[in-house]
Amino acid sequence: MNLDVLYEPYVLSDKQLDFYGKNSFIKIKEVLSPKIIDYFNTVISAKVDEMNTQTLPLEKRDTYGKAFLQIFNLWTQDERIRELLFSKRLAQLASDLMKVDGVRMYHDQALFKEGGGGITPWHVDQYYWPLTTDKTITAWIPLQAVPLQMGPLEFAAGSQHIKTGRDLSIGDESETIIGKKLRLTNCPKIVEPFDVGEISFHSGWIFHRAGANSTQQTRKVMTIIYMDKDMILKKPENDGQLNDWNTWCPNVEIGNVIDSPLNPVLFDRTSDNYS
Question: Which of 166, 159, 195, 165 is nearest to 178 (CA)?
Answer without folding.
Answer: 165
